[in-house]
């Protein structure tokens, strides 16, 4: 997937189209607060061993781009992130909220594509 092309297409369309396509709870989850979650996994090497940790990282100031970045981070964390015991989660129940928000963003983007409002740039 060419995520840079997706970001460019999101920037080229009317910015409110994606924010209107997602629920208020999704907007609050992703765009509210510090706009630095979902966290990203960072790998460092100590003594020849990979050490992983999740860290907060700022999302784009652009709302459509921030929504897409958050959805991608959820996807990356699901496939590549740590597999913690649910009883040891830093934010209990938070994972399901992020999955719901990311699914809402993906559905909103798909709706924009199907209706011809989000198109690849020439």
What coarse outline follows from CA principal-axis ratios? globular
Terminal CA distance reads 17 Å
Strand residues, percent? 5-15%
The helix-and-strand class reads mainly alpha
Q: Which value, in Å, is the CA radius of gyration?
A: 16 Å
- Tell me the number of structural domains: 1
* Major sheet details: 2 strands, antiparallel
Number of helices: 5
Stretches where pLDDT is under 50 for at least 5 consecutive residues are none
* Average pLDDT: 88
Describe this structure as you would to a colleague:
The chain has one domain. The protein is globular and about 50 Å long. Helix content is 52%, strand content 11%. The chain has 122 residues and is mostly helical.
A few lines on this structure:
It contains five helices and two strands. It has one domain. The chain starts with a helix and ends in an 8-residue tail after the last helix.
Write the layout of secondary structure elements.
Blueprint: H1 3-12, H2 16-21, H3 24-31, E1 40-46, E2 49-55, H4 63-80, H5 94-114
Antiparallel strand pairs: 1-2
Helix pairs in contact: 3-5, 4-5
Supply the key terms:
122 residues; mainly alpha; two-stranded antiparallel sheet; 11% strand; globular
